[in-house]
Amino acid sequence: MQEALCYSKTKRSILSEKETSRIPVKIAHFAKTLDGRKLVINDITSLTAPNDLEYSFQFSEQPEEQSFVQLHQLSSNETPEDKITVCCKVLKVGATKVVGQAKYTVANITIADVTRQIVLDVWNNQIPHIKENKVYKFTNLSGDDSEEDLCVVTPGFVGCNQQKKSKGEDNLKDKVFDVSSDEEMNCFECSSVISDGDIGLMDHLKKEHWSSEESSSLCSEDMEEKEFNKCRDCGKYFSAQSNLRKHKRLARCKGTSHEHKKAFHKEPKRHQEKDNLEIHANMSNRKLGPEIWKTCKVQEVEALPYNVDGLCVYKLPFKKEAMMQSSVDGRPWGRWKSSSRKNLNGTRRVAECGGTYECVNVACPYFKTYWHKNTVQFQKLPPEVVCSCCGYSAKPIKCLARKIWEFPDGASHVLVYHYGTHKCTAIKPSIDVSSEVTKFFKDNSSAKPSQCAYESLKTTLHETKDVEEVYKKAKGYADYKKIQNVKQKESSSLCSEDMEEKEFNKCRDCGKYFSAQSNLRKHKRLARCKGTSHEHKKAFHKEPKRHQEKDNLEIHANMSNRKLGPEIWKTCKVQEVEALPYNVDGLCVYKLPFKKEAMMQSSVDGRPWGRWKSSSRKNLNGTRRVAECGGTYECVNVACPYFKTYWHKNTVQFQKLPPEVVCSCCGYSAKPIKCLARKIWEFPDGASHVLVYHYGTHKCTAIKPSIDVSSEVTKFFKDNSSAKPSQCAYESLKTTLHETKDVEEVYKKAKGYADYKKIQNVKQKVLESINPFLFIFLFIIIFF
User: Fold this and answer.
1) Distance, CA of 87 to CA of 77 (rounded, Å)
2) Which of 212, 242, 399, 622 is the 20 to 30 Å CA partner of 73?
3) Tens-place pLDDT, residues 87-122
4) How far apart are CA 301 and CA 298, in angstroms?
């Protein structure tokens, strides 16, 4: 049997009707009290009729749990002497007494309910758990009516004077529990403070808010027709039509109805942007007058806040030679237009916010990192704007905010009026360090831009010793290209004549100077400027010439007919090695030893070879196998973060998302690149070596193998079976550093320990070899 508290007037009438008609009710979306013992039924809770298979109980007049006994019934012999349950408030706790030759302790407490006040005896371990002014529930108690005003309700005792101990005394703490809250509770209806916990709150609700006339006025038919509305898609109930409409509009359920689909594609209604659209219309007619800002207080500032927004007015000084630069903020304003209004003697200018863009690609790296769509980083690739993170076409978002400048004649200040709410993201300005950079390169013309930032930040840290100040200044040095341009201007002003004649060469497309012709050619070849010349366009679209793949195509034709004979490698010298180089390439022959139980593993390299096939040729007594290179993929997205970082296309990091392969950096579909290189193994009968023939030039990227540390890991875990895998890597690298004192050697070895799962597997094998019966025992326990 479960107790419940009903705080909803409508639910109360439903439950009362169901109780009268003996109809079961299914309760969903309910809450619980703080102690977790009672259910809370409110307006959010849904009451529905269950199916016949959802319940198996029948109605019972007497609940399974014992009902509470009022105190006045104890003296009138209306209750049995044993298994009494009372719920009352403790008014006073008396002094503790020792009885029965110091074996037992007893204390007299005064309790009361709405009917009577009596004195009770509390024994032994029960005494410390009872406090004054608290409401407690006593279950399975025994009583003695030898005196009218004394009722002994100590569990495990019969009468006051017999003092016979029961077996249930050890569970006394479980039989008595506090049902009140340490904190005062607030009424749900009138917010008044109730100090007696749940019982006091229920009494208050019954007396003040729950009238019988009000409950009877709400019947089940009104509830079904007016109060509750059901969503046909997910089956949820709502207390009002407005809640149901909001639920459908926000598409919070997994329904597939027309209204739910419409929620994602529905255009905003006219009234939602009525004010903004009117502003936009008046803006074109230059009728946005100062009466709109009558209620706004003019704020005098030195500079506009970078995230200016809403209805506001600012007053700030300006310089005549740079009128607009004095009122710059972080919003993407469009080009200003001249305007005028009545009673203004001066200059008036108006600008509209340029809005922003939004990336709609759910696989965008920006979205995966920050869990919201990219509205900041974009790149213009005519005729469209694409996301700088993934290269997807961006969706434009219009921003209807406005900004107005008024420069009164003869005044040294400007009034800036702002109207509307922005949908764009404000860019926080960085500290201007151009003066410091110019001064540094005047004194150190041969220094690098990175040295300028390092020296400036180091000086700031020593002077201020404030990390926040250094962090702000570091943002000013983040634009590396800007520092390079400042250095270039400074160096060109010092030796302009020599540069033009001898040392520097100018790019005609972007105007940059280079110290040598080779640098200029590299600049044009990689198309690193925004020029529009034929050479720059040609860099991206140049097709491979026919003669570049002529040999490979002939190889491919011979390979299909299995005519790739040993005569091709006649001019090649056989190289005897212990292992193949990981980046094997070109026309070459290798001779190396092999193990019969692992024939192919002895000649592994870093190329992505496909599955080998059996082959044969004349005058060969032995085994011959042939494999083709599996090729690679290439990301064709010019806005890929990999391309921007390394200045060449990604041919390494890819992910299989059937039915295609995509770039791991930007999510674009990858272009497959076929690799026509071949590898041939020849194992002569009775020999302990293998001849490996390689033909062709690879287009794929070779993967450098890491150092094999399995022997060291095995030895470590044999000596330290309880150690963690991370301890193994730490101890091994520390020993290597002390012995060799070579950082490169430690770095190479660290790559071998990078595979954490491999170290875990080695540890498990070592533990199995040390104690195999332990794993057999665990297997039996788990599976049997």
Assistant:
1) 18
2) 212
3) 888 888 888 888 766 667 888 888 888 777 888 888
4) 10
